[in-house]
Amino acid sequence: MWKRYIVEIGTGLDLHGLDVTKAAKKAVKDAVSHSCLCGVSDIFGIKEPEDFSRRFKVDIKIAAPFPDQVDRQAVREELPLGQGQISVQQGGLAAGGLHVDQFGEGDQIVVVNAALTVYIDTEE
Q1: Average of pLDDT values for 77-94?
Q2: 3-state secondary structure 58-103
């Protein structure tokens, strides 16, 4: 039986270039960096990589100003462990920034939010 273990929130930005995938990857990394899931090992006994693949999954919810431009597979690959599902919806923020040729296209800043919900298979 899959049970929700933790929900963590992250934010990512692309300051130059309107790259929502880059911002989404940063948002996932940000969320991951806020948590030490020691209970996964201490409470559920999940220690080996194959155990994580089998008993640990993460739902990734992304909110981006241009959701159709998010490379879902690239964002999913930011998860260090476990299985991952991803959904992308309209959200985040696009705001005026500064155009600098050396940093990328455009003069907009994009902000993307990520919510990572970790589930553990508790029946094994």
Answers
A1: 92
A2: EEEEEEECCHHHCCHHHHHCCCCCCEEEEEEEECCEEEECCCCHHH
